[in-house]
Amino acid sequence: MTMKKDVMNFEKKSMIDLLNQTSKTKKKEIYSRVADILNTAKRRAVKVNLVKLEKLDLVKDGTIVVVPGKLLGTGILNKKIVIYAYSFSSSVKEKVKNIKSLKDFCKDTIDYKKTMIVK
Hints:
The protein is of the alpha/beta class. It has helices at residues 2-26, 29-38, 50-55, 90-95, 102-107; strands at residues 46-49, 64-72, 82-88, 99-101, 115-117. It contains 5 helices and 5 strands, in the order H-H-E-H-E-E-H-E-H-E. Helix 1 (2-26) packs antiparallel against helix 2 (29-38).
């Protein structure tokens, strides 16, 4: 039983390590903040619906949104934003075109002034 838990967390641990390494190489604190939020207990894991992104006034067209958890597909998103998430449901893939993983967040060049962490 413990073996399954370790295997499931291996991907999460490697993502946290990648975010911390990227924080050191790019010298930006946003990557370490995302790693800290992602490194929480499973019962406190971040889950964000599309409705929440639509209702937030700070999220405008052209904003880059980082979700250090799971993005769920409840609701409709009419804003033109780029979303980076650790994981996302299959309904989100159908509804949102500009969705990427956190691995892409570490690789891409980003305008940090337009970037927001939503939890």
